[in-house]
Amino acid sequence: MEEKWNLGTQAVQGAYRPKNAEARVLPLYQSTTYRYDTCEELARVFDLEQDTPMYTRLANPTTDALEKKICNMEGGVGALATSSGMAATTLAVLNILKAGDHILASSTIYGGSFTLFTTTFKDLGIEVTMFDPDSSKEDIVKLAKPNTKLLFGETIGNPLVNVLDFEKFSAVAKEIDVPFMVDNTFATPYLCNPFKYGANIIIHSTSKYIDGHASALGGMIVDGGNYNWDNGKFPCLVEPDESYHGVSYVEKFGSSAYIVKARANVMRNMGMTASPFNSYLTNLGSETLHLRMDKHCENALKMAEYLKNHEMCTWVKYPYLSDNKYYDLAKKYLPKGASGVLTFGVKGGRDAGRKFIDSLKLVALVTHVSDARSSVLQPASTTHRQLSDDELISCGVSPDMIRFSVGIEDVDDLIADFEQAFNKIK
């Protein structure tokens, strides 16, 4: 029945279905472990023959319901919650890559992901080539190597707010026969479903719009079940896993092989586990996802139009502005709206931008993004300050850029706050 529900209904009632006299709201199972009646039954759990929780590092009933909800929203075959969005990215990659492998990744991804790819993965022996996502299909394919094992991009780039050309990326992935992984954080399942456009694995920082209230860290990996892992490139999913009774994930779990291995192998060994309490809060927040995203999109477009026409604003980027470079892609892949994040520059450059930010009263300066409350920051001096000037340029981050995460407040109050701040730097 649930698979026929619209996404708004899934957000409110998906995954958790209480039986007679059970709690109407998904309970918080704040327990590390679970009791079993017999050794035989617990053994079946360890042998991956029985899908019930035995230790919260691997599974928890509260987290399980959240996983199933997001999985259903995205249309996947399975999902795995993690302790943060960065944990989701790390685990999703390390589930299939090892030293000696190579990644092709969009250069306009979140600064933390950029550093993870170019520093931490490099230290682990995984090579990464960053490229301009606006490059032609042919030029991207030329970057592939015999050891290339993954293509990575973001639906909406952070902070450049560029829109991913799914058709092109999917074609590249198919031509070089590697999985296509997409960070769908800014779009959420409500605005975009990457599996419909050729993605194989989706990741989220649920700390952002899915939670929606900046109250709970978390991440999510969703498996589309639509990639042929038995193509000779991923023996870790095909050959027996000697650390887990010699199981072949592809042979035993078929289309769910990737997500089962992520849980049974990498999560077991690395422990990037979602807190049950955070899963509880995230699930509560997700119940209004569809309502909030409509308001975020509405407010962001109004603020983008306001800034575009303001004498103190030198430029503004938002995909739903008709003259934006990514307008056509946004309409194609984000028909409900282009999310709630935009960027702009203030007349006077970096220093004027800082003074503008310091003068805001309603809109806060925070390092977070994509929650109900409006916020700003200057990426070059905060989230991307670890990058060199050349890396900043490759990411599209200019020194004067201000990232504006538009909340769900009354837009007239947001405009009034911007007006008083602009007046202080004229």
UniProtKB/TrEMBL annotation:
Organism of origin: Candidatus Fimicola merdigallinarum
SUPFAM superfamilies (UniProt xref): PLP-dependent transferases (SSF53383)
Cofactor list: pyridoxal 5'-phosphate
Gene Ontology terms for molecular function: cysteine synthase activity; O-acetylhomoserine aminocarboxypropyltransferase activity; pyridoxal phosphate binding
Similarity comment text for this entry: Belongs to the trans-sulfuration enzymes family.
Gene Ontology process terms (BP): cysteine biosynthetic process from serine; L-homocysteine biosynthetic process; transsulfuration
InterPro entries: Cys/Met-Metab_PyrdxlP-dep_enz, OAc-hSer/O-AcSer_sulfhydrylase, PyrdxlP-dep_Trfase, PyrdxlP-dep_Trfase_major, PyrdxlP-dep_Trfase_small
GO cellular component, one term: cytoplasm
PANTHER family, A to Z: HOMOCYSTEINE/CYSTEINE SYNTHASE (PTHR43797), O-ACETYLHOMOSERINE SULFHYDRYLASE (PTHR43797:SF3)
NCBIfam families attached to this UniProt entry: OAH_OAS_sulfhy
Keywords: Pyridoxal phosphate, Transferase
Pfam families, A to Z: Cys_Met_Meta_PP (PF01053)
Keyword Transferase: yes
Record-given protein name: O-acetylhomoserine aminocarboxypropyltransferase/cysteine synthase
Residues modified to N6-(pyridoxal phosphate)lysine: K208
